[in-house]
## 1
Amino acid sequence: MADVINYGPKKGKAGLPVNIIGEGFSRLENVRVRFGQTDVGAPATVVKNDQHVKSEVPAAPDGPVALVLLGRNIDTGLDEQIFVGGFTIGSIPAGAAITDVYPDMFGTTENTAAQILGYGFQDVGIANGVT
């Protein structure tokens, strides 16, 4: 079974990338993300060793919606709907913002890669195209 650990950003307008972090995503096929009643037409992208699903906010009315990860479990053949969390469709503030860092704890004995999630990074030159 796939599990969601975190996601971000939690608010954004159409076209903004949304990152879902977890584990077991490679056990799903035909992965999609649903924002409220709007199922994103194109399949979501599973990246980073089955720990990261990336999608985009669809064109939909502004307001709060439920964010849901959809897919067929390749082990059971059953469709899964995994509640990710709440999301608000709408404009984001100008500038850059970090919405999350994964993992939220780091050990001192091993090298751990960090993912910094947010929006507007390209607008301020923090990292070219990273969202």
Note: The mean pLDDT is 78.
## 2
Amino acid sequence: MTHKHIQSVRGMKDYLPEEIKLWQKIEKIIIQILHSYGYNEIRLPIVEPTNLFYRVIGQLTDVVEKEMYTFDDRQGESLTLRPEGTSGCVRAGIESGLLYNQEQRWWYYGPMFRRERPQKGRYRQFHQIGVESFGLSGANIEVELIMLASRWWRRLGIMDNLQLELNTLGSFDSRQRYRTSLVTFLKKHLSFLDVDSIRRIDSNPLRILESKNQQVQMILREAPLLSEYLDQESQEHFSKLCNVLDKMNINYIINPFLVRGLDYYNSTVFEWVSYDLGSQGTVCAGGRYDQLVKELGGYTTPAVGFAMGMERLVLIVKAINSQWSSLVNHDKIDIYLVSSPHVKREALILAEQIRDYMPQIKLRTHLGSGNFKKQFSYANKYGARIALILGAVEVEHHRVIIKILHTGEQKIVDQKEVPNFVSQLLV
């Protein structure tokens, strides 16, 4: 009886070693820039109480209604694999007493889970980097977050391939007034709405503004605009944000239909969009959420943040920056240690001595079978610059043969001198 191979869960992707090199290069740049702006890392659980997401995201959103992975544990408590990171970040800040009358700037990175239809750059297990700021009101912190992301794009060589879109949702009161007017308008045009839009009219009508249905979008051209219902404070806040971005030479467009898919946003919302990924082109998105801390039992705390999908970012970098995409096929090492079968223990000892002397070295010790010719073929496969050759004679005389692979030059060196000698060759 043959057993069927077990395959990965649909929409949950393996990331193999040849892909990870590019991921690591991108991650290193992103994290270095986060540190340069004074943001500190926070690490959060992958599983949270389901009620956290009901309260934060909103029970009538697509994420909660359709996409969450929710289950009961053995004690009957409802738990959910996190679909986004802001909820857990706020929960952790309140629980640890770090948000009351304090300023915090945090970032987090890890897998998120949503049961969506898998598509290019969009999986059911995906990876996000989130950036959150607490305790700062005003437009300047929003500008800083946008500038931080802009610096990512410049360092990654994709700035010209992303478009910043902005909007303001205003205060909760002004948004409520707009909601009433929008619902009145939509109910007069029910025959032009699709099933999904009709379902949202009473529960989450602002989401209809982001509908991809062409007929719905055509009707929305005649709909009232949120900007017509903004209070003066919200108008001034958004105007200041735009003015500062103008002075910083950050290009943007104002998208009056940008509302974001989660209930907790107020005031400024923004997205970085790529047209190289098809219709689902949002790479990075966020906004202000000043009431969320209070909603979860804390004190009123101004807050703003954004999250970026790593899968989509990697796709763009590979498509735009060919020099970086070549990393996928290269895994070069500095040294390959060739040895005969009976001196593997001595080879391991020598390798550790070299690593002690040069912690950053990339050294691979041949531990399998194969004659010297076969081992040299592996050294060439991994792009090694130097081969160290250790046989029974070399061990007996405490020596090592060092071969520079691109020239074929060889030299016999006392084993104690090998780390220093190699370090000179690799300068």
Note: The chain has a mean pLDDT of 88.
## 3
Amino acid sequence: SRRIGGGTRFVIRLPAVPAPQRLRRISYLSEATQPLSPEALSQLLRVARARNEAAGLSGVLMHSRSRFFQVLEGPHDALHATMERIYRDRRHKNVELILDVEVEHPGYQGWALQFTRIDDDLIERIRHGGPSALEDILPARR
């Protein structure tokens, strides 16, 4: 059969571009299985910052004696892998997920992992206040 108008037909195949992953923000509380020396804490931060940067994650870690509170954000797959590692890490116990939400804009971009010390009262406020307490305590960096 003939096509009206004739001409040449071209087919251009472009490589598939993966859809961008949705940005997620999680936070959790955990307890250290043993007290951390300043040197051990420094090493933990060095390794975590390098891993976060490589995985495209950002966030903040807070330490209160033997307890931790952390907020992480980034692509779902990277967060999932990091949380799996945290759950398996023998330096942590009683990991309690506080928040797991999808966000449109990063709040901690550029922070591979900020660190600060906090007190136990603030840890309890986070634990019992849930996500609403997080907004008061840790407003997203602008």
Note: The two ends are 64 Å apart (CA to CA).
## 4
Amino acid sequence: MKKIISLVVVLLFVVFAVFFYLGSLFTDKFVDEKIESISTGSDYSADTSSTDLTGYPFSLRRYFSACIKDSSEKPALARLKVSGEFKTDEKSGWLPYRSEQIYNALKPGFVRDSKIKTNALTWIRSVESFDKGEGNILIKFLSSLTISDEQSDEIDQSYLVYYLIESVMFPPSLLPSDKISWKKINNEIVEATLSYNKMSVSAKFHINRSNEIFKVTTTDNFKTSKNGYHKLPQTTLYSNYKWFGNYKVPTSSEVQWNFPDSSFTFSKLNITNVEYLNEQD
């Protein structure tokens, strides 16, 4: 009887191991397909942007001059290596994660593939994507077992907002074009509006005396709650700028929700590497 029980235990272990291994392979394939999808069929050509900034706010012109060494070539993709931590709510502890993030620098689109440590033995894999104007959040236990697979109009808009804010990682995408426009708020703040796929979102970019974007605020993002989605002001703080190729970009950031009487920081991250790729790559 003991031998039979031992055999059953071993067989169950093998079955679970194979299940999670195959599940992980399917998730890898899903991520590869998403990356391929956002990397092709660009409808946001670099030719539509302009490096002639005559008439645009002086602080914006200073930013582009300081953070773009050569504007003659614009990357098609930006690939980031990220380590960070985040909170699910104000009372939760910090969860560490590592992530690879791929952005299409010519049109709004990205894939974030993150591995989140929940304890010493288990992890959750989060695959966030924004492709052809549609956002998706796929969460898998041990990279295999689907916990949630979410899509909504609110996610679509929020991910377009995130693309706009995170474009500081590939500055040429912020150049004025038929999709993105700028207006002056004051000597240090400029507002960008990004229009794409029948959506339009805005964010205010704060530029310091070092000609760096150090803060971005928006009221167009949605926060999830038990009662669904609701708009809430959000602030992203950028710091520790470094050069990667032709572009000077922030390598540290914090993101917070802004309530009427307080703020909640839910994400902190550090960028360990940025790689820019051309279409032929």
Note: The first strand starts at residue 77 and ends at 86.
